[in-house]
Amino acid sequence: MSSIPLAQLTSLPTYASVSSTRLKSLYSDFTHQKHSNPSSYASNVEWWRHTLEASLVRGLLSESSTLSAVPDRLVLHAYGVAFADRFRVEGVGKPLSIPTVIFELCSSKALIPLSDFLNASRSIYDPGWLPYRIANYVVGKPLWWALGQLGIVESNGAVFGDSGTTERWKKVRGDYVAVSLLESAAERILERQRQKSTGHLADSLYNVESFRAAFADCAHEGATLSSTDVKVVLKFLERDKGAIIVRGEVIKFVDEGTAQTSEVTPVDTGILALKTSIERLQAQVDTVQHRIDQLTQQISDALRQKRKEIAMTHLRARKQFEEVLKKRLSSMELLRSTLIRVETSAGDIEIMKAYESSTATLREVLAHPSLQREKIDETMDAMAAANADAREVQDAIQLGAEMAQADANVDDADLEAELQALVQQVEDEKAHARDQQLETPELRTPRHTPTMEQPAPRSEQEKVPVPL
């Protein structure tokens, strides 16, 4: 394997923001820091996790020698020292702790061995999955024995980091599924399926070839999934997400989490066959149409060059392709109409099943003893009797209240007269208060005008005799 070009390495987000001193630390052997400096150890492992994932999804870790081959984007191939050489940087060297990083990522389930992933019958999220059972098994065992069983410690007590780089690679070399990349790819595929689905049954049915054609380019931006990636995604969507059912060549999308209760029916197989035939015919139509366009252009070129014989030859060929195109379009139209009828009939089956289920449910409800005619009459009679009893109780309470009021010898006329007297008393008090306010003289400062005399008080004016 050749090294990844420096320009491509520095384009990775993790390399773009790291200093040269920090890079040398990341490329050094930091295996022993797990106990002496655990925070730095965890930070280094996390940096390498992001670096490996970014390199993988960009296709920088491809082992293929041909440019035409599609590199794996979800499966990491870690095979010895040559893998570390891919990250060699001039002046820094190659990373020495890649085996340690891979081991830690496997322990945290960020990486899962490809064979274990494809062959496991239980979900990777199931606590009873194999790695968790191993962890539970070694808990409580002597520390050195447990570490030895996991390959961290040699039988003679040597720590994983004490062995040479070649020995470390022997313990971790292999193919690994990058779980975070897989989860991201699965979510994008499910979102694409939700967007393109129109509610027709054919929209949820694929074979492996059509699945890859529909979703390989949307798993990651600018990346195309390889055949191995597609196999991993299908296993994840079926077993871990419960979003598809895979039966032979049929891939059927279902509501997420309902894969265990759904099935692939013969109707699904027939619809998929029709859909596949239509897609193939459409590809043939596109090819024939493209050939007709080419011949038309060649005819025009030949006529401009006054080469009538060549133009006539191209014209005959175009006529033949037009006949082929006409037949392909007719066949495709027939298949499409057949597909529509099949989907409609399949939908009618589902509707009838819903009717039957609803009818059975309604009959079951109506068969309840509480809804029988005799029971209904009995219940209604009991309700009428209870209402009559309630009215009798209410009448008895009202009668008792009236009798208690009569026993108190209280006359409503007397109460009304007393209330009026109280109201009149309040009015009299208000009137008396107003009179007192009017009789009280106001304290004002008299004004003296130098040019006019003050008029005599009214009492003195009354003393002046009036001439007869």
TrEMBL record:
<feature type="compositionally biased region" description="Basic and acidic residues">
    <location>
        <begin position="427"/>
        <end position="445"/>
    </location>
</feature>
<keyword id="KW-0175">Coiled coil</keyword>
<dbReference type="GO" id="GO:0009898">
    <property type="term" value="C:cytoplasmic side of plasma membrane"/>
</dbReference>
<dbReference type="GO" id="GO:0005771">
    <property type="term" value="C:multivesicular body"/>
</dbReference>
<dbReference type="Pfam" id="PF25880">
    <property type="entry name" value="WHD_CHMP7_1st"/>
</dbReference>
<dbReference type="Pfam" id="PF03357">
    <property type="entry name" value="Snf7"/>
</dbReference>
<feature type="coiled-coil region">
    <location>
        <begin position="271"/>
        <end position="312"/>
    </location>
</feature>
<dbReference type="InterPro" id="IPR005024">
    <property type="entry name" value="Snf7_fam"/>
</dbReference>
<dbReference type="GO" id="GO:0000815">
    <property type="term" value="C:ESCRT III complex"/>
</dbReference>
<feature type="compositionally biased region" description="Basic and acidic residues">
    <location>
        <begin position="459"/>
        <end position="468"/>
    </location>
</feature>
<dbReference type="GO" id="GO:0006900">
    <property type="term" value="P:vesicle budding from membrane"/>
</dbReference>
<feature type="region of interest" description="Disordered">
    <location>
        <begin position="427"/>
        <end position="468"/>
    </location>
</feature>
<protein>
    <recommendedName>
        <fullName>Snf7-domain-containing protein</fullName>
    </recommendedName>
</protein>
<dbReference type="GO" id="GO:0032511">
    <property type="term" value="P:late endosome to vacuole transport via multivesicular body sorting pathway"/>
</dbReference>
